[in-house]
Amino acid sequence: MQTQPRHEWNLTPAAAIALQQKLRGEISTRDDLGEVRYVAGIDVGFEDDGKVTRAAIAVLSLADLQLRDRAIARRPTTFPYIPGLLSFREVPAVLAALERITITPDLLLCDGMGIAHPRRFGIACHIGLLTQLPAIGVGKSLLVGKYVEPPDERGSWSPLVDKGETIGAILRTRPQTKPLYISPGHRISLETAIAYVMRCTTRYRLPETTRHAHKLASGPAIDAVENQPIAAENQQISLF
User: Given phi > 0 = left and psi -120 to 50 = alpha, else beta, which region is 66?
Assistant: First the structure.
């Protein structure tokens, strides 16, 4: 799939913050989805002591959560690690990986935050805006906000609130495990985002999209997996 550049990536931290403030006004948290047939997980890992960014995309069919397409891209890491500005460090490699997939997903599940971000512009917002695809932030740790712990039941959730604004949800995908931090990235509401995350989650804490993408982004022997052809329509490459 093709993506359209909106800005330069060679920015100072101050310029990156200013850009987030500018672009966040374009984010929509209303449902603007068509039929969702394919869902994609996006995750990023690092090689060579952080000098190389490795982004992975795993495209699954929503009906059976089987892997249908995947891509990896490596790019030199050019932006420092600064909490709240991780998209400027990771998204260039993500866009390169997205250009390598042959199936355009209908929905993106990004490892990280959407509007549950100090400036309401996390990595899921950034990717969603640049691709104009509906996107969800699926975070594993808290960045900003306060909440009441949800009941220890699969599918239970409680609002994540910051400065009086509901910016996401604390979602229990599996009993007796830590919850996930879900927030809209672009073109999707919070309630719909929660529903799709649960639809993509089986017996594990993380949705299948995230599990596949994480293994591609950070797993061992990645080149061998990368060079394998995708399995037949009713099969699935074993990544675990």
Answer: beta
pLDDT at 220: 64
Q: Residues annotated in the binding site for Mg(2+), as ranges?
A: 43, 111
Class (C level, CATH) for 32-140+186-218: alpha beta
H or E, element range at 57: strand 52-61
CA 78 to chain centre: 20
Exposure letters 68-80 (e unless 16+ CB within 10 A, then b): bbbbbbbbebebe
Q: What is the pLDDT of residue 230?
A: 55
State which residues of the chain have pLDDT below 70: 4, 220-240
Q: For residues 156 and 2, give the distance between their C-alpha atoms in angstroms, rounded to a whole number.
A: 37
Q: Which residues are annotated as a binding site?
A: 43, 111
Q: d(Cα 140, Cα 123) in Å, to the nearest integer?
A: 13
DSSP secondary structure letters along 96-107: HHHTT-SS--SE
Please state, in angstroms and rounded to a whole number, the distance separating the CA atoms of residues 38 and 107.
7
Q: 172, exposed or middle or buried, with CB in 10 Å at 0-12, 13-18, 19+?
A: buried
pLDDT of residue 147: 97
